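#lab-general

N.A. 3:47 PM
ok so I finally got the sequence cleaned up, no stray characters, all 366 residues accounted for. can someone with queue access submit it? mine expired

B.Y. 3:52 PM
send it over

N.A. 3:53 PM
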Amino acid sequence: MIKNVLKPAILIIICILFAYNLKAQKATKPNVIAYYTGNGTVIDSFPIEKISHLIYSFAHLKGDSINIHSAKDSALIAQMVGLKKRNPDLKVMIALGGWGGCAPCSEVFSRDNGRKTFAKTTKSLLDYFKADGIDLDWEYPAVVGHPGHQYMEADKQNFTALIKELRKSLGKKAEISFAAGGTKNCIDSCFEWDKVMPLVNRVNLMSYDLVSGYATVSGHHTPLYSTPQQQLSADFGVKAMLAYGVPANKIALGAAFYARIFQNTTDANNGLYQPTKFLSGIASKSFKTEFTAEKGYKYFWDDVAKAPYYYNAETKRLATFDDAKSIALKTKYVINQKLNGIMFWELTEDSYANGLLDEIDKAIKP
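B.Y. 4:20 PM
back already:
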């Protein structure tokens, strides 16, 4: 009789534990965050079901207010929100700024009335489009960014005041995120981490362009790990943020859906860590036709950095990028380190099918 009573009880406990385990697995699934600069004619072609956050890029300041500069872009945002019919869990966010797009930010956000107007107009804009949040891509508070853009030490505290005003205006439900440069200078100097992070949903770590357009020595622009020759990497940025007390579950790791091409003055060491100058960028969807053996390119894998690159010994050109292998490793890193998710720049540069987004999705699935 006792055995007969215990069996159903044990089965119930097993079912509860199984259901709890499934819920826990779902809760820890990393976010997949895509910036988008394209147009409305192609966005439907991407596998939106594999994205958690889609970020319109970019809104800018007009006076003290957030502004969408054209009717075409307004239609695009509405179309992005409409993609929730395909993916009900999708969050659509509006990004402010970008490289070269935040020239007045330092001045506007230094003023209490400037911050209040911005927060108020952001609330109106999100309500109008039924969008889910704002992403601040101010490059950069308190340190040098785009040539000619104003910056000052007080930006660091003003950024905190801006986040407080946004959270007050938008309420608890709206998402707030911001992009942070992956350099030591930005991580150390741009933000009051202890004051900002409790108020936001995540920080998007730009762990790409780590060898910049101003670089004089070649290297990996988006490596997962540091090397003896190159300190900056995705792992370096994450560890630096963790050291400041940033919660792991609020860090989104950045990946690049494009290559940066540099031209060296020597062909030593298969192109790595040599005197160089930046030439251009190329979208990942064009890699198969651009980086061919017929054009002189040879593929290399750096097992320390966990990063790929192509080198053309004849032209002395080095291409540094993320590919299927490095993207999968970055995604697994996000899962293992219990980070918030993986973010990438940007969706327009991916293939419609069998692209890097698909590799992220495969790496997330058991």
